[in-house]
User: Which sequence fits this backbone?
């Protein structure tokens, strides 16, 4: 009985990436690099330094007791050493760990940024996947509202750089101390504050009766729930002042923030919205959230002040503020606006050999010198017909096609085709670099 071919015996593997994840083929990587290049350029233009941390972290960094949705979405497991670990769902706790690790040796204020992969096991919608890359900018050791404004300025600078305007996108701004003042008015115990914020963050996702039920489950009286929900409808600072008074700390901080934003020149991007509290328990003051004004996408970015996070990890509190900006939603927005580029694969030189083995040896040395001079060179490694070479040169957007042939080399030259100008000439080997 004849043996079956091995290809018949081996079942083809599933070539799809795991559900909720992405592959990045060369065109996708070029787009990702373009986007990350903008993230990095803005960060560096604001004087920030880049950091990174492992995607795999200790589970305790992310498990908190406020009922946050994120803790239910962890990719977590026990490793072979019995340690409880998780793929990071966000970057801020890793940053906090690095700050604690640095201790008093860290010069303050510190301005850090990161671009890292995050994982959340969540329901997928447009712009929401189970893995994404996130751009973070954080300022450690600056107490004043000036830090928040600097970060908001960086976000609007990024939007402007990629062609997004304040007519396309806005940034909702609030201060958690507003909600805190409302709860204090109704004599709500302080320990209820963080769980209430988690529920309020679901306002756009759940019907009002469900929100009321969840707040009641936290032990809030009917009068408190009604007063709380009414306060979340405030949309101007004047309305806020009427509720909390002009001497309220949250009101004064928001007034200063909007005044500074006007001085920076990006006030038209900002919208006061008392319902924005962000769903993470560690925020303590200013909070903000980027949104598309058409209302078709989920939040583009979000952040705020989190002065108590280090203390929650057993360290000494430091003023800290930052934001996270995912890669998935902004790509959808740029696509909708017709602003998503298709960066081409490009090299400067394509080098092809038309000759014997000796010419390939000569060409190999030439390619090395070209690359050492800083040029991007695609060396054709096999014998190919000139029609194929020309088509390939066009596909990679090459500037020059350099032909190493017997006659030209013997004369001390190579043949060079300037592809865009459609000109060709013999160039001395010594001058080709």
Assistant:
């Amino acid at each position: 009985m004849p043996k079956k071919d091995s290809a018949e015996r081996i079942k083809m593997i599933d070539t799809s990436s795991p559900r909720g994840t992405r592959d990045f083929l060369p065109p996708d990587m070029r787009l990702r690099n373009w986007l990350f290049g903008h993230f990095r350029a803005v960060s560096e233009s604001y004087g920030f330094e880049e950091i990174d941390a492992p995607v795999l972290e200790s589970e305790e960094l992310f498990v908190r007791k406020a009922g946050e949705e994120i803790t239910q979405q962890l990719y977590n497991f026990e490793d072979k050493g019995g340690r409880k670990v998780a793929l990071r769902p966000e970057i801020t706790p890793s940053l906090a760990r690095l700050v604690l690790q640095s201790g008093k040796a860290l010069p303050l204020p510190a301005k850090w940024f990161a671009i890292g992969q995050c994982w959340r096991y969540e329901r997928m919608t447009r712009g929401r996947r189970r893995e994404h890359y996130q751009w973070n900018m954080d300022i450690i050791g600056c107490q004043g509202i000036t830090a928040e404004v600097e970060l908001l300025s960086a976000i609007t600078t990024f939007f402007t750089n990629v062609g997004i305007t304040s007519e396309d996108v806005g940034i909702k701004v609030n201060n958690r101390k507003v909600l805190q003042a409302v709860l204090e008015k109704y004599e709500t115990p302080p320990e209820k504050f963080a769980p209430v914020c988690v529920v309020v963050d679901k306002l756009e996702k759940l019907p009002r009766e469900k929100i009321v039920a969840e707040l009641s489950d936290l032990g809030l009286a009917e009068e408190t729930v009604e007063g709380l929900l009414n306060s979340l409808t405030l949309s101007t600072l004047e309305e806020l002042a009427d509720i909390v008074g002009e001497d309220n700390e949250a009101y004064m901080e928001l007034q200063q923030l909007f005044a500074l934003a006007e001085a920076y020149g990006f006030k038209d991007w900002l919208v006061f919205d008392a319902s924005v509290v962000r769903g993470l328990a560690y925020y303590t003051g200013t909070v903000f959230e980027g949104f598309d004004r058409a209302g078709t996408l989920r939040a583009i970015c979000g952040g705020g002040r989190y002065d108590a996070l280090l203390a929650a990890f057993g360290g000494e509190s430091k003023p800290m503020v930052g934001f996270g900006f995912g890669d998935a939603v902004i790509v959808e927005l740029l696509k909708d606006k017709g602003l998503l580029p298709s960066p081409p694969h490009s090299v400067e030189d394509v080098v092809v050999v038309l000759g014997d083995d000796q010419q390939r040896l000569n060409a190999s040395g030439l390619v090395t010198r070209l690359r050492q001079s800083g040029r991007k060179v695609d060396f054709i490694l096999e014998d190919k017909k000139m029609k194929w070479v020309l088509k390939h040169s066009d596909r990679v957007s090459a500037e020059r096609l350099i032909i190493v042939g017997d006659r030209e080399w013997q004369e001390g030259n190579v043949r060079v085709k300037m592809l865009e100008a459609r000109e060709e000439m013999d160039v001395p080997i010594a001058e080709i670099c």
About this structure: The two ends are 62 Å apart (CA to CA). The first strand starts at residue 49 and ends at 50.
